[in-house]
Amino acid sequence: MAERLNIGGIVEVVRSVAGVAGSVGLHEPEFCGNEKSYLNDCIDSTFVSSIGKFVDRFEEMLSEHTGSRHAIACVNGTAALQVALQLAGVRANDEVIVPALTFVATANSASFLGAVPHFIDSEDRTLGLSAKALAERLEAIGEKSQEGVRNSETGRRIAAIVPMHAFGHPVDLSGVLAVAEAWSLPMVEDATESLGTLYRNRHTGTFGLLSALSFNGNKIITTGGGGAILTNDDELARRAKHITTTAKMNHPWAFDHDEVGYNFRLPNLNAALGCAQLEQLEGFVQRKRRLADRYRQAFDGLSGIRVFIEPEGARSNYWLNCLLIDENVAVRRDELLTALNQAGLMARPAWTPIHRLPMYRKCPRGCLDVAEDLEQRIVNVPSSARLAHG
Ligand SMILES: *Cc1c(COP(=O)(O)O)cnc(C)c1O
């Protein structure tokens, strides 16, 4: 059976889709727009730090692009998610429902608030949180009470549900939302990988009470480091701006603060880069979708492996292209990863599911069979927009 995966053939196919010689990164940023001009603007004006016109402009552009009523720029996506959870009402000793198959920051942002992640399974169709597994788990352990939903096994309050749109593919938002509504739990979207991704023609990150975006160096657009909180709620937006900017009271010269606030501001320099990048987002999405289509066609004849295609109802940004190895040949994943990397084609597995990391081993969780299975079979391959040139 094991010989059904033609590793040499796969390396050749990835090389031909990449269409360039030499080493190819997994996701490389591209600065072909107004980046230098806007950065020079910051330096010439001396506004390089936490105040400046690019922060306001970046927030307006994000709001316009996503259709979210408000966007609040932050120092990074993890900080954005932490604040989003805090504003959704997550407190110390609460539980926050997250997928086991995600980047560690999804769980860390809950931990920073003293809360405990509660892991739920993913589904094959979206690679994200399974609405069915979520409903079954809440049915099994959830108890509606005076102060909300209690986990009858741990006694802790369950405070929020955090789906994550893996590799830019939207989760089953209508399914997850239906469960969240049935239990009156707020949904906070980890949309850090899905800028540019639509679900039923609406931008991901606008379905939850709040959501988080990331502009880290490896994301579809980058500000060097950066993030944003999205929300349609005016009061939550005001609170988000306030507590990410040291909770300073607005005054021409006095220095007063009315609560403990964070310094999670995005510097103007980074926002300037963000404005130039956001101007190019739609082009990046188009080229990444073309690249994904080339992968799909090129892998058509290969056995033992397939390219993950966006779920129905989605327009995915295809942030990272994702190969799925068949279950019966999954034992050869590391052999494939080694061969691709040795050929100069950067490839990597999915994240180690978080419930297996030492600090999260004892956290509550449902059955995680699908997440465990997917983790054995996922290989991400070079996905930079530049590879779709020509
Ligand atoms: C990138 C990412 C984050 C965090 O973003 P940073 O800007 O790097 O802090 C959070 N969750 C997921 C799933 C991510 O991919």
Oligomer: single chain
Based on helices, strands and strand pairing, what is the structural class?
A: alpha+beta
CATH top level label of the largest domain: Alpha Beta
CATH superfamily membership of the largest domain? Type I PLP-dependent aspartate aminotransferase-like (Major domain)
What are the bound molecules? pyridoxal-5'-phosphate
Order of helices and strands: HHHEHEHEHEEEHEEEEEHHHEEEHEHE
Mean pLDDT: 96
Strand order of the largest sheet: 3-2-6-5-4
Looking at the structure, what is the overall shape? globular
CATH architecture classification name of the largest domain = 3-Layer(aba) Sandwich
Radius of gyration: 21 Å
Runs in which pLDDT lies below 50 for 5 or more consecutive residues are none
Q: How is the biggest beta sheet arranged? A: 5 strands, mixed
Please report which band the strand proportion falls in: under 5%, 5-15%, 15-25%, 25-35%, 35-45% or over 45%.
Answer: 15-25%
Question: What is the number of E strands?
Answer: 16
CATH topology-level name of the largest domain: Aspartate Aminotransferase, domain 2
Number of helices: 12
Short note summarizing the structure:
This protein is of the alpha+beta class and 390 residues long. It has helices at residues 7-18, 35-45, 53-66, 77-87, 105-111, 131-141, 173-182, 234-244, 268-278, 281-298, 333-342, 369-377, and strands at 70-74, 95-99, 116-120, 142-145, 148-151, 157-161, 188-190, 198-199, 202-203, 210-214, 227-231, 305-307, 314-315, 321-325, 348-349, 378-381.
